[in-house]
Amino acid sequence: NEYKKYQDDLADLDTHYKDLAIKKQKEKYEKISEEIQKWGGATMELANNLNELFNQIGANRERKINVNFQDENTALKSQLENRLISEAEYQAQVKQMEEQKEAELKKIKLRQFRREKALNLTQAIQAGALAVLQALASSVPPVNFILAGIAGAAAGVQIATIAAQQFTAARGGIVPGNGPGNVDSVPSMLA
Questions:
Q1: How many CA atoms lie within 13 A of 143 on its CB side?
Q2: Residue 148 burial (CB < 10 Å; 0-12/13-18/19+)?
Q3: What mean pLDDT, rounded, does the chain reach?
Q4: Could you tell me which residues come within 8 angstroms of residue 110 by beta carbon, excluding any fewer than 6 positions away?
Q5: What is the pLDDT, as a whole number, of residue 92?
Q6: Quick check: 127 and 155 in contact, CB under 8 A?
Q7: Within the chain, how many helices (H) and strands (E) appear?
Q8: How far apart are CA 175 and CA 171, in angstroms?
Q9: What element of type H or E holds 5?
Q10: What pLDDT is recorded for position 172?
Q11: 138: buried, middle or exposed (CB in 10 Å: 19+, 13-18, 0-12)?
């Protein structure tokens, strides 16, 4: 009878230590999760603010490029009207200016795309790490390991999706159709 009581006491003690170990492990994961949220949140806020600043700089550059194009086009029209250049020279120079403008705008968009892709990857990695830690702290083994694996896999899919994104530049210009000359009069649906 005392042996049975001794075994029951040992089982209770073993259960108590297991519960204590699980509680400590949970607290550890929760503490790490809190630190990631605290520091990661501050870091991501700074990164978002910098991204917004760079987007504003890019928008200002785009406006400047467009204004310069308009000014140069106006000057060329004046030369054409004053018969300083021929229609062919005017068209050739306008085409060259348009190509240069589009190349410069494409560079700006590419930089913006790369910056935003890096920011999105950083956010996805941080969110994935946080999800795994929260899953580990959410339950007892082995359920928490399964939940953490699912959270990690979902984060991996999100990260892979972002990493696979490719830059595509919009192709501008006149839509061919029934319109007169250089006028774009073809209706279109824009997304």
A1: 6
A2: buried
A3: 87
A4: 167, 169
A5: 96
A6: yes
A7: 3, 0
A8: 11
A9: helix 2-81
A10: 54
A11: middle
